[in-house]
Each structure stands twice: as structure tokens, then as C-alpha cells.
From TrEMBL:
NCBIfam families: thrC. This is Threonine synthase. It comes from Sphingomonas hylomeconis. Residues 86-343 form the Tryptophan synthase beta chain-like PALP domain. The gene is thrC. It comes from the Bacteria.
């Protein structure tokens, strides 16, 4: 399997290279040169497989030439052996049509663990036996940071610098990052910044020849293809349990950066019968405006009780636009450069019409979010977090007859206990395995949100590449 950049001029890489690289050298994002596909018979054969065995079947084509099936299975067994539920990502039925896919049984209680536990092992595997030191720089709106830090803490050959917007993540999210005191972990709280500001700084570091030429930079954000690859698995795992391939299944995905939705899009390209992918946004609705009106224009970020979705620039949307636009790297590069300059662009007719077949979107405000949390609690006995509630609200508004709709439950409700209590009157408790979180020592740096300040901090602590 070979990987190409959405902007057309970066080198073609194999799976090992693309995992360690993260962002492409031309500023684009990597994705496979072609989509592997499964026949209905191959999908049907996934019924009854464990999560690990499903993961091996789904991911094997993407790692071909780099990892064998036995090696891939061993890595998956290690990654998912840390999850608290034997099914790894269990389905929970809410009513006759609606289901939750619980993605929060990993060590940091969020869906990011599904990919990052594996990514941490891949980094270790690909760096083993070399003297290469990788500098991981990442931006987080809460969950990516804690999941990446848990996965990479103490691993040889990797230093992690994680940026988060100060005061714009929940207390649980912050502490899950800042109480990990491993020497290779560095948390940076950016003052007066949004997640988009953090993400822009990360991209600027990759795109700076001086900085990226000094350090071997890599990424754990969903710009890293390996993360999206791991997320494709749970779409197959859930769908075959609800009747696929004979029966189509719809998914409602709470999203900010579009990575989880794009993983579902890839599953559909691989042959999974996805009836519809519902892109559920909060009031930071750039994706809803893009998909419903063709208007991809950046607004101001509004802080909400669903902070992981408080985003106005969705990195992974570039992958979708590339695939829908005929995979024309030069055209996509010009389109994205125009957006970066003006903070606005129109989707082409091909991009809009291509998205319309599979994707639909909805914008969920605070009242609808709270109503979904109450409905889940009172009607189905399920306490859900604000992000999941946005996905569920969009799912319940979707006019899809005779199709099971799976809402991705992206975080444990205890990560957002204040918001859950306001909506339901119930204050969810942290699971016992992280119950001492608020007794642990914190360590992080507060910095101005400037390129100079952040790169100077990293340069003092990171190991230059040879």
C-alpha cells in the first residue's frame, strides 16, 4: 500500500513512513493511493469475530508491505487488552431504531484511545533498533491530548509536546494530560487561544523548513493516517452486528475535526453498506454549512459544553474534498491555499454532489443537546456526555426509515460531569481506574499563543534530528 498527499507534490510513502511523518511535506494530508474493497461475502465473514480479529481483517490491506498479519494481531491484542470492556467498543440499544456505540472504554475514557493505543505501539515498533528521536507535536481540544499522552508516556525515542487552549478543556480532560509526569511528556497551555489557534501553530511548525528541518517532527492528531485507519474498524464491527452486509446501517457522528466521519466514509468506500453518515456539529457549524450550503468559511469559535467540537477549521475535511474532487492534488492545493488566505471558500459542484449521496449534516444547539441527554437518561437509562448527545440529537431528527442508526458515544459522561448534571440532575462518577485523578500532581507550562514562544520552548527540550 502506497500513500499520497492531498496536495500532490509530497513524496509517495509506505505505511511505516506515513505513520512517522504525520503531515505531508507539501502541507497536505496523506491517504491511500487506492481504496481497498471487501466483497459482501468478506464482510459477512466478519460476523462473530472478536474486535482484535476484525481489526486485523480491516487494517491488513493498509499495512501491506510493512506489517504482516501476525505482527498486526499482536499489536492489536496489546493495544485493546487495556480496554475495560471485553467487546472493546460495545453496542447499547436505546429503542427500536437507535443504538450507541460506546467508544470510551479505553484508559482515558474517550474514543481517541481506540486509535492512539495502537499508534503508540506503532511508533515504538517503527523506531525500535534505530537511534532516531521523534518529536511529536500535537494540538488538542481535550481528548486527543490525554489519549496520546497515555499511549506515548515513557516510550523510547519519542518526545511529546501537546498544545491545548488554556481554560477551554474540562478539568478531567486537562488533568488526564497534566498529571502524567513522564520525562518525555510536555504539556503546553496556550493563553487566550482556541483549538484552531493550537492547530494552526502545529501546522506552522511542520511547514517551517527551519524548525521541521531541525527536529524529526511527527503527529498524533487525526492528520496522521494511522489514526484514521484504526477508527475504520469500529464501523465494520458495529455494522455486522446489526445485519450488514444484507442490511444497511446509518451512523451519527459528533464531530469537530472530521476525522471520525472520514473513517466512516472510508468504511463505505471499502464496501460497508452505510445508509447515511450524519455529520453532527454544535453551534461551531462550519461543517454543517459546508455540507448543506457549500459554504466552508471560518467563523469565531464559540465555547460550549462540548469543547472537543469547538472548532472552526476541520483538518480532515481536506481528505474528503480531495477524494470527491477527482483526486486532483494541484486543484485541491489551490483551493486550500485560497481558504488559508481568505478563511473562506466554496465547495465545487463535484464536491457538493459527491458528499450529498452519503453525508448529511445537522447543527445542534444547547437546548437540543440537553434534551437529548435527558431523553437518553429518562427514556433509555443511559447517561451520555454532551458530544454524544449532539450526535444522538441529530440521529433522532434524521428522517431515515427502517434503518438502524448508530450514534458514536465518544466520551465517558464523567469527563463532562458539570454539563451532564445540569441536563439530567445526575452527576456521573469517574470509573474506579481513574478515580484518584483529582489527587494527582499537575505539571504544565502556560505560554503565549505565538509561534516564537512555542517553538523556543520545544527547542530547549527536544532532541534535534541527526
Amino acid at each position: 500500500m502506497r500513500y499520497i498527499s492531498t496536495r500532490g507534490t509530497a513524496p509517495v510513502l509506505d505505511f511505516r513512513q506515513v505513520t512517522l511523518a504525520g503531515l505531508a511535506s507539501d502541507g497536505g494530508l496523506y491517504l491511500p493511493e487506492t481504496w481497498p474493497t471487501f466483497s459482501p461475502e468478506q464482510i459477512a465473514a466478519m460476523r462473530g469475530l472478536s474486535y482484535v480479529d476484525t481489526a486485523v481483517e480491516v487494517m491488513a490491506p493498509f499495512v501491506e508491505g510493512t506489517l504482516g498479519r501476525d505482527d498486526l494481531k499482536a499489536l492489536c491484542e496489546q493495544a485493546y487488552g487495556r480496554f475495560s470492556h471485553a467487546a472493546v467498543t460495545p453496542l447499547v440499544q436505546l429503542d427500536g431504531q437507535h443504538w450507541l456505540l460506546e467508544l470510551f472504554h479505553g484508559p482515558t475514557l474517550a474514543f481517541k484511545d481506540v486509535a492512539l493505543q495502537l499508534l503508540g505501539l506503532l511508533f515504538e515498533r517503527f523506531l525500535s533498533g534505530s537511534d532516531k528521536q521523534v518529536t511529536v507535536v500535537g494540538a488538542t481540544s481535550g481528548d486527543t491530548g490525554s489519549a496520546a499522552i497515555d499511549a506515548l508516556a515513557g516510550r523510547a525515542g519519542v518526545d511529546v509536546f501537546m498544545l491545548h487552549p488554556k481554560g477551554r478543556v474540562s478539568d478531567v480532560q486537562r488533568r488526564q494530560m497534566t498529571t502524567v509526569l513522564a520525562p518525555n511528556i510536555h504539556n503546553i497551555a496556550l493563553e487566550g487561544a482556541s483549538f484552531d489557534d493550537c492547530q494552526a501553530l502545529v501546522k506552522a511548525m511542520f511547514n517551517s523548513p527551519e524548525f521541521s528541518g531541525t527536529f524529526a517532527l511527527s503527529a498524533v492528531n487525526s492528520i496522521n493516517w494511522a489514526r484514521l485507519m484504526a477508527q475504520i474498524v469500529y464501523y465494520f464491527y458495529a455494522a455486522v452486528r446489526l445485519g450488514a452486509p444484507e442490511r444497511p446501517v446509518a451512523f451519527s457522528v459528533p464531530t469537530g475535526n472530521f476525522g471520525d466521519v472520514f473513517a466512516g466514509y472510508v468504511a463505505a468506500k471499502m464496501g460497508l453498506p452505510v445508509a447515511k453518515l450524519i455529520v453532527a456539529t454544535n453551534v461551531n457549524d462550519i461543517l454543517h454549512r459546508a455540507l448543506s450550503q457549500g459554504d466552508y468559511s471560518q467563523g469565531s469559535v464559540v465555547p460550549t459544553p462540548s469543547p472537543s467540537m469547538d472548532i472552526q477549521v476541520s483538518s480532515n475535511f481536506e481528505r474528503l474534498l480531495f477524494d470527491l474532487g477527482g483526486r486532483d492534488g494541484a486543484a485541491l492545493a489551490a483551493q486550500m491555499q485560497g481558504f488559508e488566505a481568505s478563511k473562506a471558500m466554496r465547495l465545487t459542484n463535484a464536491q457538493q454532489s459527491g458528499a450529498a449521496g452519503l453525508l448529511r449534516s445537522d447543527r445542534i444547539d444547547l437546548d437540543d443537546m440537553a434534551m437529548a441527554m435527558r431523553w437518553a437518561c429518562e427514556g433509555a437509562g443511559q447517561v451520555i456526555d454532551p458530544h454524544t448527545a449532539i450526535g444522538l440529537a441529530a440521529a433522532r431528527r434524521a428522517d431515515l426509515k427502517d434503518v438502524p442508526i448508530v450514534t458514536l458515544a465518544t466520551a465517558h459522561p464523567a469527563k463532562f460531569d458539570d454539563a451532564v448534571e445540569r441536563a439530567t440532575g445526575m452527576r456521573p462518577a469517574l470509573p474506579a481506574r481513574v478515580g484518584d485523578l483529582f489527587d494527582r500532581e499537575e505539571r504544565y507550562a502556560s505560554l503565549p499563543g505565538t509561534f516564537a514562544a512555542v517553538t523556543a520552548y520545544i527547542a530547549e527540550r527536544a532532541v534535534p534530528s541527526a
